[in-house]
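Letters spell out the chain; backbone shape is given numerically. Both lines appear below:
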Amino acid sequence: MLADHFAAGTLEIPALGRALHYRKMRAGDLPAITAIEKELFSSPWSEEMFREDLDQEYALSLVVLDGETIAAYVVTFLVLDEMHIANVAVTAAYQRRGIAFAMLKRLLTAGREMNYFLAHLEVRVSNTGAIALYEQLGFARVGLRKDYYEVEHEDAVLMSCRLQSNPLFAS
């Protein structure tokens, strides 16, 4: 199972000049994570949404820590030979430092090692920074989901990445 690859580890973050640690998300992280959600997103996930997925075999939720401070997190759903990246967040104080890139590269490399074939995600059409990040990781725009973000009536770009043929994720 992919979650077994993520007991804990480190991510080298050159822009910070040091490594950050990652581990599986825990129930005790949820108050801080929901506060980050409210800070970053106009339609934040609730604590219950995160809690529902914590111990599910189909989900992998990770946090990236700077000491005891949550700097970033990702929630991924695993379906057959595909990964669906459902939520990616980097706190404002840590944005634009390569943390999302390092976190997603580690996640997708493990997915490739576990023989997952594709990774998918949706991203707001207006989030050009995230779209550029995902393209840097080898994701391609494959569709558009109209009014995906219902509250704001904003479309989402559907992006996919072939893990097995992407040299970025080779061990």
Q: What stands out?
A: Helices lie at 30-40, 47-53, 99-113, 128-136. The first helix runs from residue 30 to 40. The two ends are 18 Å apart (CA to CA). The chain has a mean pLDDT of 92.
